[in-house]
Design brief:
The chain is α+β, with helices and mostly antiparallel strands. Helix content is 28%, strand content 33%. It has four helices and 13 strands. A hairpin with a 4-residue loop joins β10 and β11. The radius of gyration is 35 Å and the shape is elongated. The N terminus is likely disordered.
Amino acid sequence: MTAASPLYCSKLLINLDMTVAMRCEYLGADVLDLSGSTVGDGNELKETLTYFELTKEQQERQKNVEKLQGRRMDYRSLNELVTASSAVTAMPESPLREGVPPDSCRFRGTIETNKVAGNFHVTVGKTVPFFQGHTHLSAFVLEDVYNFSHRIDKLSFGKEVKGIINPLDGEVAVTDKRSYMFQYFVQIVPTAFATRSQKLDTNQYSVTERERELSHSKGSHGVPGIFIKYDLSSVKVHIKEVHHPFTGFLVKLCGIVGGLFATSGMLHSFIDFLFSKLKRSSATHASLASAQKKTREPSET
């Protein structure tokens, strides 16, 4: 009996650190995948009351992430990017302020779900599971408290690896509309990194964003909230850092030196050829001038 490949039987880990500009008692967060399964007991995210406004320490961390996002879009060596990204730590806590009630909810943790396409969402109302699905108790929440402005400090899939910056890390979306929907369509690509110092087996992803205001009278239907719809690619990418041996460097160096000598020899021969041509031309002109002078002298006498 052969063991099943871990590529097909393993679970998918969703690592998340997100802050939504609504208090935790008004929100529910969960995952629904194509198999109809939802997040089970023990996999729930940790919910913490906090503030949407960043502290100075949090602002510094946000600036570092945004700077690295810019570098990630440029062509960089794998080792350089991992080394630079490893300096970014988790988003610091925001201490409670005296006399100022928290206005936001921070969802943080790791969700283990089936390794199939699914939908992670944060919307109004706590989750109530039932057979082959779940619902949210949104009827008990007034629309006046709706605010789905949010900040994604971390979103990754698979084993969390320190030093990897993902496309949605540091994402900030703000709206002043009450009934609003944010959608992120994520394509996950399993990826194996191999550098000289470490080997990483994780996931990359690309993302397409969409947002719109909901208005049933205008024909824009839907559920207000934040929806991250993900799908998995059937292709795995292997990225390997290869170093050529020192002997290869010596061979190339010898080739360069030999080429320099050959080129200098060709230049020397070409210059010598030009000088010899010039000398012959000068000698020919001198002999012709001498002959013409001799022929003129008898006629003059």
